[in-house]
Every structure is written in structure tokens, then in C-alpha cells.
Design a protein that fits this description.
ABC transporter involved in vitamin B12 uptake, BtuC; 14 helices; membrane; 353 residues; transport; mainly alpha; two-stranded antiparallel sheet
């Protein structure tokens, strides 16, 4: 009996390890393909050779045009796609763990809409006090402020109930959308075009400074998140059980909501609103390898990076020479899956009542 129990425990671990290796390999392959494919095609071998040459491990540089395309256009976009995807995927897994609901995602607590308010306001009112960093900083700051407002409004009697937090997030989301509409009303045609393009989500304006802008926040959040995997596993047993096992549920919720805000606000600030990555990725991994957060949290970061690399590659190649908005593409794929997920969850629970 103990031997079979040990074997049953090793099976999910082996599956999780294989999935992690597969996801990591997929990210590397997708990154190389994304760096090489486009209006100016670069063979994968030449991409690898240029990368090795830059780090002093042999290889050979490309011609002047090839080097410029690869290092000034493609690679910043590839790295930004990985950072944004990893941030959204990881944030989604944390949200679902905190709320104990596979239908939760970062937008629930208003961080995406809040970041959008800052970005849209900076465009509509022509704010330039930080130069090219103005939009990014405004989006990041308003995203964090929105999360803090949602948290403070939903807190009562020294505690924060999940249902109250979600409903407060819905109300704040609606208010944020009203502010966005007001900013658009006062904007001119050129600003409206820029706002619309940003709201649809895109990585077409990726540069190394934008990568550096999101890198500290993304790395901080991605490194902190796995440290709370065990506590999330205990929280999944129920709040009362988690408290009996020594988990400070309220403190855990505060910390993880702030980590989610850090990850999501940084991602939204540089990419616009990219829907459904934080919802779908953790749920798919949970279906494949179980609910354990020791795999789910880092696995969601890897899978999110892979999904956004593939989505961004499709966005800029499916309709060449035009480029599809990234957020539109992820929503087109994610919406039907979300509907299926709702039906599946409802069927398993025998209804919502």
C-alpha cells in the first residue's frame, strides 16, 4: 500500500517535470522562430550565430541590415513578449489560487482597467513630463493605485472577503471604463487613433527601453510568486483549514494581490490590454498536471511566455503587410474557450445555484 501511494505521488511530479521541460523548450524554439520570421526573413541558424557572436561564444554576425533588424526590431519584441506573457500567466495562476476559482483572472481586481486609465489619460491630455516613459509610468502607477483602492474599499472589520473583493473590482472596472470614455470624448482624432490602438493590445512599438522598463517589475513578481506556492496549496483546502495549518490568510491575500498588481500593471503598461492569457493558461496547466501550485505558478509563467510569443508571431504574419492587434487575436481565440470553460464548470457543479 505505501509503495503504490509513493508511486501515485511520483507520477504527477514526473508529469510536471516533463511539462516544465517541454514548455521551456517550446519557449526557446518559439523565440528563435519569432526572431527569424517576418517581412525580412532571417534563417534560424543565422539568428543563433548572431546571438552566439554577441555573447562571445563563436558564431558570426549578420550583414548590416540583418543585424539591425534582429537586434533593434525583432529581439526587443521577442523579449517583451516573453516578459508580458510570463507576467500575465503567473498573475493568473496567483489570482485563481487566491480566489479559489479557475475563472478568476488579473482583470477582476481592476488592475488592467486602472492601468488603461493612466495610459489613455496620458495620451488624451498630451502628458510628456517623463518623455517616452510618460505613458508607461502613468499606466503602471494608476494600475497599482486602482488595486489599492479596490482592496481598501472591500476591507471591513480587519478582513477582506473574496466575494466583496470581486464585486468591488467589478464596480471599479466600470468606473475606470467611464473615465476612459470621458478621456476619449476630449481627445482629438489622432489621439483617439492612438488610444484605440493601445487598447487593442500590441507589441509593435517594442524597444529595449520598454524591455528595461518592465524587466525589474516582472522579475520581482516572477521570483516572489513561487515562494508562496505551498501556502496557496494550503489555502486551496479552505480558509479555516489554512488558518489551522498556520497560514495568515489575510496577509497572504494582501501580498499576492500586490504581486499580481505589480506583474499585471507592468505588462499592461507596455503592451496594452491583452485579454485571456491570465485566465486560460493556468487553467489548461491545471487540467494537464493537477492543482499543485509548485508547478502551476512557474509553469504558468513559461506557458504564458510561449502563448504570447506564438500569438504575437501570428499577429504580425497572418495579415502581412498589415498587423493584427494582439489583444484582438487573443480574445478571438480565448473567448470561445472561456465559453466552453463556463459550460464545463457549470456542468461539473450541477449549476450555479
Amino acid at each position: 500500500m505505501p509503495r503504490s501511494a509513493g508511486a501515485s505521488r511520483r507520477l504527477p511530479r514526473a508529469r510536471a517535470s516533463l511539462l516544465t521541460l517541454g514548455l521551456a523548450a517550446g519557449v526557446v524554439v518559439a523565440a528563435l522562430l519569432a526572431a527569424g520570421i517576418g517581412a525580412y526573413d532571417i534563417p534560424i541558424g543565422d539568428v543563433v550565430g548572431s546571438l552566439l557572436h554577441r555573447v562571445g561564444l563563436g558564431g558570426a554576425p549578420l550583414d548590416r541590415v540583418g543585424e539591425s533588424v534582429l537586434w533593434n526590431v525583432r529581439l526587443p519584441r521577442v523579449v517583451l513578449a516573453m516578459l508580458v506573457g510570463a507576467s500575465l500567466g503567473c498573475a493568473g495562476s496567483l489570482m485563481q489560487g487566491v480566489f479559489g476559482n479557475p475563472l478568476a483572472e488579473p482583470g477582476v481586481i481592476g488592475v488592467s482597467a486602472g492601468a488603461a486609465v493612466g495610459a489613455v489619460a496620458s495620451i488624451a491630455f498630451g502628458l510628456t513630463f517623463l518623455g517616452n516613459w510618460t505613458l508607461i509610468v502613468c499606466a503602471f502607477v494608476t494600475g497599482l493605485i486602482t488595486v489599492l483602492v479596490v482592496y481598501l474599499l472591500s476591507r471591513a472589520g480587519g478582513r477582506t472577503e473574496v466575494v466583496t473583493l470581486i464585486l468591488t473590482g467589478v464596480a471599479v472596472n466600470a468606473f475606470a471604463m467611464a473615465l476612459i470614455g470621458l478621456a476619449i470624448f476630449f481627445a482629438d482624432n489622432a489621439q483617439i487613433t492612438q488610444i484605440t490602438f493601445w487598447q487593442l493590445g500590441s507589441l509593435s512599438q517594442a524597444t529595449w527601453p520598454k524591455v528595461l522598463a518592465v524587466l525589474p517589475c516582472a522579475l520581482a513578481g516572477l521570483l516572489l510568486a513561487p515562494l508562496y506556492a505551498r501556502k496557496l496549496d494550503l489555502l486551496s483546502l479552505g480558509e479555516r483549514q489554512a488558518r489551522h495549518l498556520g497560514v495568515d490568510v489575510e496577509r497572504l491575500r494582501i501580498v499576492l494581490v500586490l504581486v499580481v498588481a505589480l506583474l499585471t500593471a507592468a505588462a499592461v503598461a507596455v503592451s496594452g490590454i491583452v485579454a485571456f492569457v491570465g485566465l486560460l493558461v493556468p487553467h489548461l496547466l491545471r487540467m494537464a498536471a493537477g492543482p499543485g501550485h509548485r508547478f502551476l505558478v512557474p509553469g504558468s509563467a513559461l506557458a504564458g511566455a510561449l502563448v504570447l510569443l506564438v500569438a504575437d508571431l501570428a499577429a504580425r504574419t497572418l495579415a502581412q503587410p498589415a498587423e493584427l492587434p494582439l489583444g484582438v487575436l487573443t480574445a478571438l481565440v480565448g473567448s470561445p474557450f472561456f465559453f466552453w470553460l463556463l459550460r464545463r464548470t457549470r456542468r461539473k457543479q450541477g449549476g450555479w445555484a
